Amino acid sequence: MDDATLEALISALSVTPDNQLLRVQVVRELLRSRRWERAEELARPLLTTSERPLALLAGARGALTRGDKETAGQLYRQALDGDRGLVDEALEAELEVQDQPVRLSVQGLEDEQAALSERPRISFQDIGGMETLKEQIRLNILYPMQKPEIYEAYGKKVGGGILMFGPPGCGKTYISRATAGEMGAKFFTLTIADTLNMWLGESEKHLAAIFSTARTQSPSVIFIDEVDALGGKRSDMRNSGTRTMVSQLLVEMDGIASQNEKVLVLGATNMPWNVDMAMRRAGRFDRVLFVPPPDLKAREEILKVQSRNRKLAPGINWGELAKKTELFSGADLNNLVERATERALADALKSGNLRDVTHADFLSALKEVKPSTTEWLRRSRNYVNFANQDGLYEDLARYLDEVKIK
Amino acid sequence: MSEQQALQRGRLLYNAEHYDQAGEMFVEVLRVDPQNAEAQALLALCLSHQKKWKGAIEAAREAVRLDPEEPLAHEALAVIYLNSNRLEEAERAILQALELEPDSPTYWHLAGHLAWRRSDWQTALESAQRGLASDPSSPDLINLRSLALMKLGHVEESRQGLAELLAENPEDPSSLANMGWSSLHVGKPGEALEFFKSALQLEPENDYARQGLMEGLRARYPFYGLVLRFFFFMQGLSKRAQEAIELGLYLGQRLLNELAREHRWLRPYVRPILFLYTMFAYMTWLAKPLANLLLRFNPYGKLVLTREDEQQSNVVAGCLGLTTLFAVIHVATGNVLAFVTWAFFLTVCVPLASIFECEEGWPRKLMKRVALLEAAVGVLGLLMLWLGMDRGVYFISIYFQLVAPTQFLIVYLRNVRPELGHED
User: Fold this and answer.
1) pTM
2) Tens of pLDDT along A303-327?
3) Which chain A residues are Cβ-neighbours of B307 within 8 angstroms?
4) Is the ipTM of this complex over 0.95?
5) Nearest to B201 among A199, A387, A404 (CB)
């Protein structure tokens, strides 16, 4: 939506302040165009409605703009408790890393870990479909943690590392959280910004501290996002001092493996081919999980969740929409819902008649939204074809054949 | 975050190929220090990796403007122009850079790369040598020199340079890929395949190696090997000479046709020559899709063919299948219309197959329109004739009139690289 349309919506809202549908749409658009304070202001009346979570999210954004990270964090968590669909990864990243100086003090580190760690409330039940992936996670992650004695009897290790890879926007973070939720484990997140801090020596103790906290609070999951950025495969980075960082991580992971502790390190990446080879050796990220774009059932589920609280006409055929959105990522599906809504909204603005979002709106929106995963999948084909000697990409290869990507 | 920290973070993210996040860091640097040409140049490179050509070009120009002494700015501008197929602007940027630093190996490499893109092997060789005068051990320049030597026919000298590079660094994907191409040049597809496979194992997204691998696989079929040799021979000639040969062959063929028409006694001599010529001309167009068609029955070939390769070979297989069918009908029954029909399918195959050879963007769109329009005219004419409507002759003769001129359009469209970044 362009600025002019948004301004038109805002002025329409000032004429009909009780139009909740319009208000919700305006707030969403303002959030998307990063006009945080305006979003917060216009969202306030929603606090007393069923759209409270959205208002809380806007509040969190507003608080963050004013530099009040604590309030922002609280509001954001409340917002998520109300509506899980509101996950905002950019906001999370900012909440976690914004002020560097604090994390240099030991006290700061502990505070921060409290903020970094959570006990996720979501579980596999919240993910529709994706049965193969869930089963793999159960076998490789959950059962070893739940029945360690059986695994130990067979000489299998319990904790350790698993590398999850797949196209962007397909829920690697979400699935990791749900995994921790299934385990009832504490969940620690390391974002790319954290990783960079470590690289640059701004918080060298950070990594060790996170691992030691995770050990004392086990079972726990340490989630390292965009793990490819750590160390790096390319030769020009080998000399840049980042090797010490990788070594530190490896020491920690080896420590967990040798002690058989109930600490799981989950690495996520869009570029598994750039993950440092040393990190893939035994006891480290030696197990690999391909997280594909959502399957049919998962797409239907995601569409329904994303469309909740929208003004929907009866008779939307979610099954058909799911069928027509092969290869769509979670983010693409969200985009589709937004576009469909905008169609109804544009009509409402023209005619003043608040019509519902119909199946036809979704079908028209489908013409505009294309799956964003195709490029990644095509690119990955090269790795499957030419660099799959150690079988790293077996699941990916099967998937590419299934969806006929060449 | 201080400016220095942001710059350092941006560089790390850039090296890790996280271009969007790296770009944000450079924007952050520029917010604090709008005059930072290095950050501006790096921002330009981030944008180009995200294929945002227009923004990339603007950012790189700005970087050069901010600090004309900053080598990275010139390099970024030239690289972005080259990658967006804007060769004339690339030339200006490189000349400007060389004026500031006449001995820079980097700039000479860019100059050589530009010449390479223009198929001007002599200039590419000279540029590589100028650069090597300042930095005799630069792998990029040695690779470029070897490629140019190879194209100019000095294969031994070329291979020697590559062998030295590989002795020093056996795992360099570029040298391996170049060695593969040089093996193809000397007609050793088997050896070439080994080099390409090694290169791709190390760098699976190396497109030059992937193309080489495909050529190597196809070159194992003798008919394709022959056509490949002809292509290599033509590439070794200057652009002028290439065009002269193409035009000469075309005119020669017409001349022979005319002679055969005028002088009955010449026909037995001219006809076989014309037939062989026509067959060869068709092979230069259709050898690739035909070889790809065969590769689909090869387990490894099946794996590496792209979806487009498959579609193209489907089109060609369909056309040639129909050609054969109607040729058989014609021979069996003497039906004249069957003769016209098989001639149609044989000729329409070339523009249709060429759609897939044109670069995405306007060249492919135009090729597609022309090919489909001609096919439609021909099919319409044939349908009318088969249904007994004599006016079909009108359409089918228009179609056949278009065949020869279309070939020139095809040659042009298959070789043109659309300039990028003029709009978003």
Assistant:
1) 0.80
2) 988 888 788 888 899 999 999 999 9
3) 404-406
4) no
5) A387
